[in-house]
Protein: Guanylate cyclase
Amino acid sequence: MPQFMDVHHGMKGISADQLMQAHQADLAIEDEEGVHFEKAWADPESGTVYCLSEAPSAEAIQRVHERAGHRPDEIHPVPLTA
Amino acid sequence: MPQFMDVHHGMKGISADQLMQAHQADLAIEDEEGVHFEKAWADPESGTVYCLSEAPSAEAIQRVHERAGHRPDEIHPVPLTA
Structure:
């Protein structure tokens, strides 16, 4: 299944608990869209969050993230890895 | 050691081989700065590359990437993960 990196801006000051809760909210509903969120990384200082997922499409990621309450600003397919 | 996500823009059309060569160029010299590049993901369509690393500082990452010929556009510490 294709991998995607999505990016959230404007998350300045996000805490470890908030990141974990947001990630859990995704995991709780991701199956309904055939998505799996593998990992999330956050920079509280700049307010940037990166989420790595496997998903059938960018739209499926968008729907899960929106329903979980945190619409992403960018979603990039990342077909190449090293 | 702190983790960082750095981002390269303007890499439209990057190939799997080019990504692998760039990553290998980093790996070849990273020890000199105490950096370890763990993984890289590329979106050839938008020309975006994400690199995840462990490093003593953003400056150390900057030096390795510059010497390897691909200066990053952003370097974010990512102290939070989920």
Remarks:
- Residues 6 and 75 of chain A are 4 Å apart (CA to CA).
- Chain A has one domain: 3-77.
- The radius of gyration of chain A is 12 Å.
- The longest strand of chain A covers residues 36-43.
